[in-house]
Design goal:
This protein has 368 residues and is of the alpha/beta class. Helices cover 36% and strands 18% of the residues. The chain is built from 14 helices and ten strands. The model is unreliable at 1-41 (pLDDT under 50).
Length: 368
């Protein structure tokens, strides 16, 4: 599962034009301070972060951490979050790095049950909002959050003189028939998140009935976010070029600011809006990998990920929200984004126990 990254991770990170951190292969790295020391040496000053492909940080922010800490950061990008986590489970005890970033609340129980992390209470954890601290043993540290939500094409609804939907209940009303495109819950991170939103809202007894009604109301299902948002959705820049005809799409609460950021010319207002009553919250975590070769460097890196500097840099790099109380959002987010006050949530334990059967039931109800 790719993250919030989360924000259709690789696709939006690619839109930056250049990644400030290159993906690195495994093996020894020459240490800039020690000359011949390697990441396997007790004196190594290299610390390795294993992550999904969407990880990004401004170069100057990373350089400042390296100068202050004395560590050189090596980033090993490993596909989407699910693939990256699978690799760490397979290499349990002999990890590829020192810190893993990118496991979210939909995969958290799997990671914890496999025992790949060493407990560590990060410096500055008292600044993290309590609702994000899901592991009381501190095997993982919250780093960011993002909301999967239905987005709407403002121009379409203004032209039709139709009020945009705002809740999950709205989406099954006749006036919104054949307007929504969503991603496959079996193959897509936002697709799974939208399924979980319905589970959170309607419970075990009601979510399948909801999807049966949504199917009857003409919901379209495609494989992934790129196809849904940049081909089928009429409100995105890509969708307009592709002549998409669906004015409702499952995407992210941060998608409107992104449309402004990359608009050519940049619009004064976002062309898309967010149905705030349709959202599921994702939280991403980082943890010290058990058996990592530079535990002290790993601890310093985890501390850095919840520092004010990194937290305030993160929104425009990965299009996610900070989790600390002292981090301010950039003006692009405060002006063109929305705050989701009451997102749907499902506990990591419930997701771990039921995810497979929920996806199978969803497939039988909606796709077959």
């Amino acid at each position: 599962m790719s993250t919030t990254k989360r924000m259709a991770g690789a696709a939006l990170a690619a839109a930056l034009g250049v990644s400030t951190l290159a993906a690195c292969g495994g093996g020894d790295a020459k240490d800039k301070d020690k000359g011949t020391a390697t990441s396997g040496s007790p004196k190594s000053r290299t610390v390795t972060l294993v992550s999904h492909d969407s990880f990004n940080v401004t170069d100057t922010v990373l350089k400042e951490f390296e100068q202050q800490s004395g560590y050189t950061v090596k980033v090993l990008k490993s596909g989407d979050a699910g693939a990256a986590l699978n690799q760490e489970i397979l290499t349990k005890g002999s990890p590829r790095g020192d810190v893993f970033f990118g496991v979210d609340n939909t995969l958290l129980s799997r990671a914890l049950d496999n025992g790949i992390f060493t407990p560590y209470e990060a410096k500055g954890l008292d600044r993290v909002k309590p609702e994000y601290v899901l592991d009381k043993e501190h095997r993982v540290t919250p780093v960011d959050s993002g909301d999967i939500c239905v987005n709407y094409d403002k121009a379409y609804f203004a032209e039709k003189k139709l009020v945009p939907p705002q809740t999950l209940d709205d989406l099954i009303k006749p006036e919104y028939k054949n307007l929504l495109v969503t991603e496959n819950a079996a193959t897509s991170s936002p697709g799974l998140g939208f399924l979980l939103a319905s589970v959170g809202k309607y419970g075990e007894e009601g979510w399948k009935d909801y999807w049966a009604k949504l199917k009857a109301n003409g919901v379209e299902v495609v494989d992934g976010w790129e196809q849904a948002y940049n081909e089928r959705f009429s409100g995105s820049a890509g969708g307009k070029k592709a002549k998409g005809d669906r004015p409702l799409v499952v995407s992210y609460a941060s998608s409107p600011p992104v449309e402004v950021l990359y608009g050519e010319p940049r619009p004064a207002e976002a062309p898309t809006g967010v149905a705030t009553g349709t959202c599921f919250r994702q939280i991403e975590f980082a943890g010290l990998l058990k058996g990592g070769r530079n535990e002290e460097g790993g601890k310093a890196l985890v501390d850095f990920l919840i520092s004010k500097k990194f937290q305030e840099d993160m929104p425009l790099q990965m299009f996610v929200n900070p989790v600390t109380t002292d981090a301010a959002l950039p003006e692009l987010f405060t002006r063109h984004g929305v705050v989701i006050d009451k997102p749907e949530t499902v506990t990591p334990e419930a997701i771990a126990k039921n995810r497979e059967q929920w996806v199978k039931a969803w497939t039988s109800t909606v796709v077959k």
